[in-house]
Amino acid sequence: MSDSQIPVPAPSSEARQWAMFCHFAAFLGMIFPFGNLLGPLILWQLKKDSDPFIDAHGKEALNFQITVSLAIVACFFLMLLVIGFALIGLVGVGALVLTIIAGIKANEGVAYRYPFTWRLIK
Fold first, then answer.
1. CA nearest to 61, candidates 42, 39, 40
2. pLDDT tens across 71-97, in order?
3. Angle CA 108–113–117, to nearest 5
4. Strand, helix or coil at 118?
């Protein structure tokens, strides 16, 4: 049996739920500034050692939120050229949709990778 055929155990229900919470914690950014970064960071730091599935999703959620935050900062600078107003809306809608998709995939036990993400945390 080759390495690619070794069965990987499915993550537990609790691990899937915590992985989903890592993604959905980004919605704290709607309540207070930098909540989109602090929510996933805190959950990932608290739960990363309990399951590799949670660790992977926590890193992915945090990397995506860092990327979104940098894109929003770039949009603010581009508001001087007017295009930033449209782009910030596009970034916001894209982040919302992709975060929901990632949370659902995590709850299904699927290893999800966000598109367009700068992966600073390995």
1. 40
2. 999 999 999 999 989 999 999 999 999
3. 145
4. coil
What is the Cα 97 distance to its own chain's centre? Answer: 11
pLDDT tens digits, residue range 65-78?
999 999 999 999 99
Note the Cα 2 to chain centre separation in Å.
32
Q: Which residues have a Cβ under 8 Å from the Cβ of 33 and sit 6 or more positions away?
A: none
DSSP string, 78-102: HGGGSHHHHHHHHHHHHHHHHHHHH
Long-range contacts, 79-87 (Cβ 8 Å, 24+): none
How open is the CA angle 10-16-18, to the nearest 5 degrees? 145
End-to-end alpha carbon distance in the chain = 29
